């Protein structure tokens, strides 16, 4: 037996319309498709044992909030000592995209200073965002050069990028390349000693 159902999935920002979800189901599979870009959000098929599993990495609902950081744990516009900052705000760490002010010109997006060594890293980019990750899942089992042990928060990443879910958020910076367009973004890492 085959069935098709239709339901409201969510509303687009700024009153831009309603997104609907269509579900097609048979004995062999189930597929969920939303009307925004005809996107497949779920595809369940059976394995050898007849168990159904969702094979699509995606989202269960519309997302995409750009929130102010002022007065929150995410306000890193001024220097903080990261370990103390995480403790003060009772955070497990960062794994978040920070939205930068709009410009396709080279601009500073992050500055890191290691007090012990005096090393300074400055990151400049033409990208609209930077993902900040603080090694939240390091647990000491990973061994590095010369047997170095990496416990939780012993490293960090600053990954310049577009905003997550930008393809589904019309109010986010555009992410899709159209025929004839060229991808042109640059990131610079500047190292110094202070």
Task: Tell me what you see in this structure.
With 194 residues, the chain is mostly beta strands. Helices cover 4% and strands 36% of the residues. The protein has one helix and eleven strands; from the N terminus they run βββββαββββββ. It has one helix at residues 82-88, and strands at 3-11, 18-25, 29-34, 39-46, 52-54, 95-99, 107-113, 119-125, 129-133, 157-161, 187-193. The strands form three sheets. The protein has a five-stranded antiparallel sheet with strand order 1-2-3-4-5, with no helix packed on it. It has a three-stranded antiparallel sheet with strand order 6-9-10, with no helix packed on it. A three-stranded antiparallel sheet has the order 7-8-11, with no helix packed on it. Strand 3 and strand 4 form a beta hairpin. The longest helix is centred in the middle third of the chain and has 7 residues, at 82-88. It starts with a strand and ends with a strand. It comes from Balaenoptera musculus (Blue whale). It catalyses: alpha-D-galactose = beta-D-galactose. One of its GO terms (molecular function) is aldose 1-epimerase activity. InterPro entries: Aldose_1/G6P_1-epimerase (IPR008183), Gal_mutarotase_sf_dom (IPR011013), GH-type_carb-bd (IPR014718). Pfam families: Aldose_epim.
Strand segment tally = 11
What is the quaternary state of this protein? single chain
Strands of the widest sheet, in order across it, are: 1-2-3-4-5
- The secondary-structure element order is EEEEEHEEEEEE
Structural class: mainly beta
Uncertain residue segments:
none
Q: Calculate Rg over CA atoms.
A: 22 Å
């Amino acid at each position: 037996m085959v069935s098709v159902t239709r339901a409201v999935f969510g509303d687009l920002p700024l009153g831009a319309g309603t997104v609907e979800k269509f579900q097609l189901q048979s004995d062999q599979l189930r597929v969920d498709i939303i009307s925004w870009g005809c996107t497949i959000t779920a595809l369940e098929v059976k394995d050898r044992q007849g168990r159904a599993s969702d094979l699509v990495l995606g989202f269960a609902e519309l997302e995409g909030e750009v929130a102010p950081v002022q007065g929150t744990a995410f306000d890193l516009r001024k220097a903080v000592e990261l370990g103390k900052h995480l403790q003060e705000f009772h955070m497990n760490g960062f794994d978040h995209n920070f939205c930068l002010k709009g410009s396709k010109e080279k601009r500073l997006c992050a500055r890191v200073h290691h007090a012990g060594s005096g090393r300074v890293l400055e990151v400049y980019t033409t990208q609209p965002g930077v993902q900040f990750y603080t090694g939240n899942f390091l647990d000491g089992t990973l061994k590095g050069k010369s047997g170095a042990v990496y416990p939780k928060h012993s490293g960090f990443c600053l990954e310049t990028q577009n905003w997550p879910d930008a393809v589904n958020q019309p109010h986010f910076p555009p992410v899709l390349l159209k025929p004839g367009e060229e991808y042109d973004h640059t990131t610079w890492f500047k190292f110094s000693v202070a």
